[in-house]
């Protein structure tokens, strides 16, 4: 059953916040591109010797320090990216509710809360993004958008996101070289997923800014976000 739409009052600009989300997604890509060769270098130098005070080579120390720096900065970039992506989804989905697109499943707050609900966060963000993309192409009171299929880009993005989470847990919980290999896989999935998400955000921005009269031209001027 569609949720009540009374919690959304008006259309909100999405171009600027979408651009900020894309910017930090590219920042994430940069950090992931840095951590992959560092992980390979760590594998080349071999495992850290066991013990409380292991004797590390100069190369191992340099790589370890660089991994700590890029990992820390990358995590900060991830948190900022997550904020902008959640806020963009919230605004964009709210615009569908504000323009009375029929047949929507969720309310305006769900694009944010869906990421934090245990178990549901394996499905809800994907379903919201699917409705967001499909509904943005049909800004009218009909439910015609429900007859369209979820684009392949969104399906692949979500598969990569789930894969990144699983492999990331393996990297966190596994010691030694296996952790480095898993982290490289996690970073590779992160790069591909971020590139796809940039494309998805830009496509949805384009759809809404050409379908919703209040947003007409905002892709060009980026005002009021």
Poorly predicted runs? 1-6, 219-225
Please report the number of helical segments. Answer: 7
Q: On the 0-100 scale, what is the average pLDDT?
A: 86
Our Rg estimate from Cα atoms comes to 21 Å
User: What structural class should be given to the helix and strand makeup?
Assistant: mainly alpha
Q: How far from one another are the termini? A: 31 Å
Query: How much strand?
Result: under 5%
Query: How much helical structure, as a percent, in the residues?
Result: 55-70%
Overall number of domains = 1
- Compressed to H and E, one letter per element, the order equals HHHHHHH
Task: Describe the structure using short key phrases.
225 residues, mainly alpha
Tell me about this structure.
Helix 1 (15-45) packs antiparallel against helix 2, helix 2 packs across helix 4 (124-135) and helix 5 packs antiparallel against helix 6. By secondary structure, the protein is mainly alpha-helical. The protein has one domain (15-46, 58-218). The model is unreliable at 1-6 and 219-225 (pLDDT under 50). 66% of the residues lie in helices and 0% in strands. It has 7 helices and no strands.
């Amino acid at each position: 059953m569609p949720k009540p739409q009374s919690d959304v009052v008006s259309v909100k600009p999405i171009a600027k916040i979408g651009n900020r989300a894309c910017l930090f997604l590219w920042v994430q890509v940069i950090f992931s591109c840095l951590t992959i060769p560092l992980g390979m270098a760590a594998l080349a130098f071999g495992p850290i010797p066991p013990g409380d005070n292991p004797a590390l080579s100069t190369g191992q120390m340099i790589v370890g320090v660089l991994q700590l720096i890029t990992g820390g900065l990358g995590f900060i970039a991830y948190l900022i990216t997550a904020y902008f992506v959640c806020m963009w989804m919230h605004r964009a989905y709210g615009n569908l509710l504000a323009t009375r697109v029929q047949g929507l499943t969720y309310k305006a707050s769900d694009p944010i809360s869906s990421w934090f609900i245990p178990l549901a966060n394996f499905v809800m963000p994907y379903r919201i993004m699917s409705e967001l993309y499909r509904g943005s192409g049909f800004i009218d009171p009909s439910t015609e958008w429900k007859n369209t299929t979820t684009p392949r880009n969104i399906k692949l993005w979500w598969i990569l996101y789930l894969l990144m989470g699983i492999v990331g847990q393996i990297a966190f919980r596994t010691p030694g070289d296996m952790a480095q290999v898993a982290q490289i896989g996690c970073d590779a999935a992160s790069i591909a997923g971020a590139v796809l998400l940039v494309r998805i955000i830009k496509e949805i921005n384009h759809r809404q800014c050409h379908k919703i009269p209040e947003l007409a031209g905002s892709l060009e001027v980026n005002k009021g976000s």
